[in-house]
């Protein structure tokens, strides 16, 4: 990967895939490549099935009502997907992988999403993964703001909610 495979980039990729589910294995592969993921093996149709199952489990983490529940769900994902950390120097430069080499895309995404989400939450705060605060918007986002108080998936939703609150006061 050219991006930090276990940081905010992979959590943003997970949010993008969850918000707009890929319909084919080819679309999944293209969106992963566009996000900077290097695919080691040819993509198969069962990779899409595995990725969609991972996104279903990940959305339960997003929608968890408390930190304990969120940690429990994420720990379950980690137990099912992550391997012992290992050093690797593929692509130049030593770095850690929390997975075995030459994994199919579906399995690779399961590991990246679970480990990346865990590192994002413990590094930035357990509350920094959520759905948009606008009631009719169901988009998921990772809060990477400096203050950790992002409430909306986009500037558009933030503006729409501000206008709605202003009109309600008038």
Order of helices and strands: HHHHEEHEEH
Radius of gyration: 17 Å
Gross morphology is globular
User: Roughly what fraction of the amino acids lie in strands?
Assistant: 5-15%
State mean pLDDT (0 to 100 scale).
91
Global structural class: mainly alpha
Q: What is the makeup of the main sheet?
A: 2 strands, antiparallel
Q: What is the tally of helical segments?
A: 6
Unreliable spans: none
* Measured distance between first and last alpha carbons: 51 Å
- Strands ordered across the widest β-sheet: 1-2
Report on the structure:
- The chain is mostly helical.
- Helices cover 53% and strands 7% of the residues.
- The chain contains six helices and four strands, in the order ααααββαββα.
- The chain has helices at residues 8-19, 25-34, 45-62, 67-81, 105-124, 155-169, and strands spanning 86-88, 95-97, 129-131, 140-142.
- The strands form two sheets. The protein has a two-stranded antiparallel sheet with strand order 1-2.
- α1 packs across α5 and α3 (45-62) packs antiparallel against α4 (67-81).
- The protein is globular.
- The mean pLDDT is 91.
């Amino acid at each position: 990967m050219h991006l930090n495979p276990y940081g905010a980039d992979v959590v943003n990729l997970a949010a993008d895939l969850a918000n707009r589910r890929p319909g084919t294995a080819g679309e999944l592969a293209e969106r992963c490549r566009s996000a900077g993921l290097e695919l080691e093996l040819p993509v198969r149709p069962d990779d899409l099935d595995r990725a969609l199952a991972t996104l279903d489990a990940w959305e339960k983490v997003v929608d968890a009502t408390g930190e304990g529940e969120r940690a429990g769900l994420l720990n379950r994902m980690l137990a099912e997907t992550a391997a012992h950390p290992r050093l690797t120097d593929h692509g130049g430069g030593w770095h850690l992988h929390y997975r075995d080499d030459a994994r199919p895309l579906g399995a690779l995404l399961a590991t990246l999403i679970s480990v990346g989400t865990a590192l994002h939450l413990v590094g930035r705060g357990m509350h920094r993964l959520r759905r948009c605060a606008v009631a009719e918007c169901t988009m998921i986002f990772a809060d990477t703001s400096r203050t950790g108080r992002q409430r909306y998936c986009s500037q558009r939703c933030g503006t729409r909610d501000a206008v709605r609150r202003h009109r309600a006061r008038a």
